[in-house]
Amino acid sequence: MAMNCPDVGPAVALFRSLVDPARLAIMLRLGRGEARVVDLTRRLGLAQSTVSEHLACLRDCCLIDSRAEGRQSYHRLVRPELLDLLRSAETVLGSAGAVADSRQALLCTYLSAAVLVGLVLTATLGRWWADPVAALVLAAVAVREGGNAWRGEGCCAPQVGAVAGADACPADRCR
Questions:
Q1: How open is the CA angle 153-87-142, to the nearest 5 degrees?
Q2: Which of 15, 26, 61, 167 is least surrounded by Cβ atoms within 10 Å, i.e. has the fewest?
Q3: Nearest residue to 169 (alpha-carbon basis) of 38, 14, 7
């Protein structure tokens, strides 16, 4: 039975280029700024030739670029939205870093709502006590979250980066 689906070639090429843990680590490192091969070999503990081969794959997939400065080549991430894709993958997979991020966003939502309620009550009904009550609610939530974090329940695995699209990746380099 034939499948009628859109061309998934670019997505397949992107994910193929990121399937190797070393290439993923390189992408995450380049997400923080430019790096030379020697910097990456020290960070990853891989041979220079291995790192260069991974860089070639990522370059062929148009995910990174490099610039020469003297005898050094500095590699950089061309598609910073790739880091967003990795963060989305963390959320889907339930990683500790993504869970911590979502808990922080939820806490910010609660805190904003408490401040808004306090301001509305003060402005519309003249309830002068609403602001101090909102501040106490904020303090209680912050103390509870701080206690959870202190016990190691709240987070905090290091954030991984994130990823997005490539057009084509030669199969021979990215396997």
A1: 35
A2: 167
A3: 14
